[in-house]
Amino acid sequence: MHEMTDNLKNSVMAYCAKIGADPLLIQGAGGNVSWKENGTLWVKASGTWLAEALEKDIFVPVDLILMNKALDERDFTVLPIVSDDSKLRPSIETQLHALMPHKIVVHVHSVVALAHLVCDGWQENFQVLLDGAIPWTAVGYKKPGAELAEAVYSALERKKEAKVVFLENHGVVIGGENIDDIQETISILTNSLSSTLREPTNSLVKAIYLDDNLQYTPIPDSKLHTLATNVDFYSHLQTCWALYPDHIVFLGDSPNVYESIDQFYEYSSVNTDLPELIFIRDAGVFIKDSFNRAKLAQLRCYYDVISRINEFSKINVLTQSQIGDLLNWDAEKYRMRIAN
């Protein structure tokens, strides 16, 4: 039986529900939170939603002493040992939470940060934008899990006072001693890194319905139609799709784009296995009923990120090898099954 300080637990749970409901910080089952207490690391379970922290049991206790011992010996493949009979799996990024020395650790896929983290020169830009407001360190893109944990370990060795670790093409890890500390850091990051929002000028005028036999409906988020009806965003679909892990895990390695409705009808006439999500140029974005809320959250995140990227920036996408590593990873397949 694990004892927890109610005040700490309650404050963490309430904060999880708050940020979990903010799509500019957390998208669906993405992101994770932890706190450390009495040799135990309480960490969000893989595939669960932070937004549901007050409604469901989404945290699992991990033996922090054993994990720290392995990490101190540079064993980054160490698996978290759940110290009760929970059937949930700890987050696939549990090592990051153990590596951070802070009592509370929050990992978010902040949209305002991602709009920089997927572009060339982001570290130099952050030096200027943050201007010493908070101690931070950074790592290049690494596959979540052992590779990322080793990179973060080395980064924290170089800058032990860091409260923030920026993860290229991925997100942000934030450490603090209490929730107020975490919130202050997130406010600094949000205010310092916010960029001009490029709202597209042309959007879907009216919903276009496809052949009912194909079982597609227009996506319910009207802004997402601009991914197909705005020339700049449509171009991004074709050249800058694979921006960060969660996008690939939930939405696949490439978008299904069609230059016209006729081209899509031609494709559907010779293919029976049709995708859940399609983009038809100048017509809109269409989905099947199986396209769940977790996937919708990730597609909205993609829109929110690219609409904040400076039009002159060079965008870096994940390589085919990096994409393959994510899609063939059993831990991510499990998370996909749990999240919905």
UniProtKB/TrEMBL annotation:
Signal peptide region: none
Source organism superkingdom: Bacteria
Residues in Class II aldolase/adducin N-terminal domain copies: 11-197
Database matches in InterPro entries: Aldolase_class_II_sugar_metab (IPR050197), Aldolase_II/adducin_N (IPR001303), Aldolase_II/adducin_N_sf (IPR036409)
Biological process per Gene Ontology, one example term: pentose catabolic process
GO molecular function, one term: metal ion binding
GO CC terms, sorted: cytosol
Name the record gives this protein: Short chain dehydrogenase
Organism encoding this protein: Yersinia intermedia
